[in-house]
């Protein structure tokens, strides 16, 4: 799994929506803030035309947020 982890090489700046400071992250200022990208990137083979369901399940082994399941409905034309 770790071979699919991607971390950006350099810092970049984002401007967070200050209204989310109390419900999402107390560090959001509303002004430019340094950030990095860090996550898992997957590619799938080209899909045939039609509807597809992609399910991604994350197992929380650290006890931080609990397990998460993301479901994407894709339509390939």
Concise structural overview:
By secondary structure, the chain is an all-beta fold.
Features:
single chain, mainly beta, 77 residues, two-stranded antiparallel sheet
Structural account:
The chain has about 80 residues and is mostly beta strands. The protein has one domain (about 1-75). The chain has no helices and 6 strands.
* Total of domains: 1
Strand numbers in spatial order across the main sheet: 1-4
Largest sheet: 2 strands, antiparallel
User: How would you spell out the order of helices and strands?
Assistant: EEEEEE
Helical element count?
0
Radius of gyration, Cα only, in angstroms?
17 Å
Instruction: Report the principal-axis shape.
Output: extended
Helix/strand/pairing category:
mainly beta
């Amino acid at each position: 799994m770790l071979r699919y982890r991607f971390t950006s090489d350099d810092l970049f700046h984002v401007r967070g929506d200050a209204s989310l400071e109390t419900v999402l992250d107390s560090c959001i200022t509303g002004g430019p803030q340094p950030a990095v990208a860090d996550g898992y990137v997957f590619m799938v083979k080209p899909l045939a035309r039609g509807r597809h369901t992609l399910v991604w399940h994350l197992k929380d082994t650290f006890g931080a947020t609990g397990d998460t399941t993301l479901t994407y409905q894709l339509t390939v034309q």
